[in-house]
Design brief:
With 155 residues, the protein is mostly helical. It contains 8 helices and no strands.
């Protein structure tokens, strides 16, 4: 609805039963004061970031920005990595993301219905001229970038 693009996250939070995504990211129970939260990186956090519909939709929105760039794939990867992490990607990171992009383009190129279904996750509408195959492939790259430990943790 109209509140889709508001800048905030509103989640009902009971005192003794926090939202499951918050539990995955080690949120305190609010039964007592917590001065410092523990730092962790667990597989459960990665699953939330990769599979929760709001994170998939956020990755698609990021991918829409990436696809709109007037650059080649390497330039898009550089821009996306820098935008998410604040630094340029290393050669190894670029190679991994380029390989992932190629594999996802091949995957969705042979299964256009899967690409269309994947790009419709979430409440925000697709742009009118979006190519679902390209957008789905770049969404997978964006999901990978946004799931990196460097992106999700403060240093």
């Amino acid at each position: 609805g109209d509140g889709l693009y508001r800048r905030g996250l509103y989640t009902f939070w009971c005192r003794t039963f926090p939202h499951p995504a918050m539990i995955a990211f080690d949120a305190p129970s609010r039964e007592e004061c917590t001065a410092e939260r523990p730092r962790s990186n667990t597989p459960q956090q990665a699953l939330v970031l990769l599979n929760d519909p709001q994170f998939v939709e956020a990755s698609r929105a990021f991918a829409q920005q990436i696809v709109a760039l007037p650059a080649d794939d390497a330039g898009r990867i550089d821009w996306a990595w820098k935008r998410a992490t604040g630094r340029g990607a290393t050669d190894a990171e670029k190679a991994i993301l380029s390989d992932l992009l190629e594999k996802q383009q091949a995957r969705y190129g042979s299964d256009a219905e899967s690409a269309k279904a994947f790009t419709t996750i979430g409440a925000s509408p697709l742009p009118g001229k979006a190519d679902p195959i390209e957008l789905a492939a770049w969404t997978q790259v964006a999901r990978t970038i946004l799931n990196a430990y460097e992106t999700t943790s403060r240093f």
